Recover the amino acids of this structure.
């Protein structure tokens, strides 16, 4: 299967500031890739280049086999910007009508109803944007990104304003997209969410890729925790096979043991390890 | 599947419709409406008084043949043209003020730009929407002023349509300049820049007036260069001139139209020049917008 997005040696500078310093990135068809990295790492810049808002300084991006920014690529890309606004006077339904027309979607009222349902805004279809909460506007933004059945969806922090239920809704929505073969590039700082839903994560820092892989591959074991008479003790670098020896040693030291468990690592730990070490 | 051309026309209509709907929600429209009504009411009252005064005064003594009615009517209408252009400029600036940079800073533009509609189409649609609105506005206000002047004193300009054409073209030039400005500057900076440019045009007219009074050809040349560089001014002066194009004799010499600048026949090249000027602005604005990071 051909890739939905291929970025090669992508570089972007703003004056003397380097936003992207030779990033390579690939999103397979129907793959859900999480793009992680600290503030200013270049995630939004990469996404904006992919949808044609920003011109790369060097390197290239292909979206669904077309050069990024070309009308053909844009016609099949759904995008939700990190900072966006819809006209306050328009209702949710009108915003979607506008985007249906611009995206040349023939989905009509049925598509709008389906999309508003997906983001749980069905009851607010007649509400004006100016009368919507921030989270409702973000839900509408997500619905907008899905207008016209795009082949790839670029979401820049789509859940930053959402309540926990909304985040779960988006997670389910992303899984449904993947099931339909839609590729997704997801920027987010919510690592637990990324870990739950993404097939692969790419971590960028300082405009470069510093790690890449399935969440389970990046996550390291979190060590061993043993409950003793004097409290919980954590052995960060130990594994399951070290437990008998650790217990024997503690008992030898006169401790009483009440329990022992292997601590599962999280993507957050792995991320902080990587970004911390790259920063230092 | 429809052809690229029909798709572009469809996109133009969608974006222009969107721009007009957005304009319709702006409070500035109410402000311009109130100002316009206030101006027309004052104008109706003022011109009735002026004609009344002139007829009581009984004309200029001596044997010089002056048509007071033409003198009064064209002077009044010249003032009306100036105010119409000014109000049209206010409207033009406010409807185009943030079409690119301003909207991009607020995040309104990005969702539209990533759609297949091209940036060129987007800019053109904004131009057409703002241009149509401003042309309609100056035409209606100018027609109202002509009608009020005629009703008050029986004065009708020689070429009423020409005044409307001049004002329409002038306001289109302002729209184009403001759209060019918006590809470079954020809302407030752009608004200030366009009003400064408008002021510079007025100053050019004023300098020309002084130049002709002092008989200084260099001042007149400066004025003429400036008014061609900012052709809304040349158009306005040409439109003033057309008011009394056929007035001959002493009346034609005496009429000094407009508060800041004399009527000036720009010659037959003005309109082709303005067209080329608009095309040049369009090319530059399009190039800037297409290369802009949003
Ligand atoms: N228009 C711009 N002009 C100048 N510098 C910019 C511009 N846009 C981004 N940058 C710089 O490029 C770098 C990458 O920014 P970018 O927005 O891509 O980061 P990010 O990874 O999305 O960060 P965040 O997590 O905060 O959203 C930053 O150093 C930023 O300051
Ligand atoms: Mg960002």
């Amino acid at each position: 299967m051909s890739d939905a997005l291929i970025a090669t040696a992508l570089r972007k500078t703003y004056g003397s500031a380097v936003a992207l310093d030779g990033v390579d990135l690939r999103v397979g068809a129907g793959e859900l890739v999480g793009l992680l990295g600290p503030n200013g790492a270049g995630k939004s810049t990469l996404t904006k280049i992919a949808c044609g808002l920003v011109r790369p300084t060097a390197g290239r991006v292909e979206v669904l086999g077309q050069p990024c920014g070309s009308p053909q690529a844009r016609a099949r890309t759904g995008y939700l910007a990190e900072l966006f606004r819809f006209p306050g006077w328009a209702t949710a339904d009108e915003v979607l009508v506008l985007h249906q027309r611009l995206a040349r979607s023939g989905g009509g009222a049925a598509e709008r109803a389906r999309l508003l349902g997906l983001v749980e805004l069905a009851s607010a279809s007649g509400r004006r944007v100016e009368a919507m909460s921030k989270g409702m506007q973000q839900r509408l933004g997500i619905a907008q990104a899905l207008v016209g059945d795009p082949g790839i969806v670029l979401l820049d922090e789509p859940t930053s304003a959402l309540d926990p239920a909304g985040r779960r809704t988006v997670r389910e929505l992303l899984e449904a997209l993947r099931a339909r073969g839609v590729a997704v590039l997801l920027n987010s700082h919510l690592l637990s969410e990324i870990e739950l839903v993404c097939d692969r994560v790419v971590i960028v820092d300082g405009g470069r890729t510093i790690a890449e892989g399935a969440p389970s591959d990046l996550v390291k074991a979190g060590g061993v925790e043993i409950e003793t008479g004097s409290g919980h003790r954590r052995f960060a670098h130990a594994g399951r096979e070290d437990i008998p020896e650790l217990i024997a040693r503690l008992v030898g030291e006169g401790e009483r043991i009440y329990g022992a468990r292997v601590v599962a690592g999280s993507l957050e730990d792995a991320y902080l390890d990587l970004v911390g070490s790259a920063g230092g | 599947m429809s052809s690229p051309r029909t798709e572009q026309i469809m996109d133009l209509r969608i974006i222009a419709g969107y721009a007009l709907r957005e304009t319709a929600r702006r409070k500035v429209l109410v402000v311009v409406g109130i100002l316009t009504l206030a101006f027309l009411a004052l104008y109706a009252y003022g011109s009735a008084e002026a004609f009344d005064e002139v007829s009581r005064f009984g004309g200029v003594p001596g044997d010089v043949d002056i048509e007071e009615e033409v003198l009064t009517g064209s002077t009044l209408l010249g003032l009306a043209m100036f105010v119409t252009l000014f109000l049209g400029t206010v409207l033009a600036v406010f409807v185009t003020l943030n079409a690119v940079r301003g909207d991009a800073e607020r995040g309104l533009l990005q969702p539209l730009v990533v759609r297949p509609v091209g940036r060129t189409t987007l800019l053109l649609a904004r131009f057409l929407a703002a241009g149509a609105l401003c042309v309609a506005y100056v035409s209606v206000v100018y027609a109202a002023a002509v009608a009020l002047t005629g009703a008050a004193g029986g004065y009708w300009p020689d070429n009423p349509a020409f005044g409307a054409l001049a004002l329409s073209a002038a306001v289109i030039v302002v729209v184009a300049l403001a759209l060019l400005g918006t590809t470079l500057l954020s809302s407030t900076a752009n608004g200030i820049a366009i009003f400064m440019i408008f002021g510079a045009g007025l100053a050019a007219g004023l300098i020309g007036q002084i130049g002709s009074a002092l008989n200084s050809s260099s001042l007149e040349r400066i004025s003429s260069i400036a008014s061609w560089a900012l052709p809304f001014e040349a158009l306005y002066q040409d439109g003033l001139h057309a008011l009394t194009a056929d007035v001959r004799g002493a009346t034609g010499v005496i009429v000094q139209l407009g508060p800041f600048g004399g009527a000036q026949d720009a010659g037959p090249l003005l309109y082709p020049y303005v067209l080329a000027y608009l095309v040049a602005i369009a090319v530059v604005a399009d190039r800037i917008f297409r290369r802009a990071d949003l």
Q: What stands out?
A: Chain B touches chain A at residues 7, 10-11, 14, 18, 21-22, 25, 106-108, 110-118, 291, 293-294 (CB under 8 Å). The first helix of chain B runs from residue 4 to 24. Chain B has one domain: 4-291.
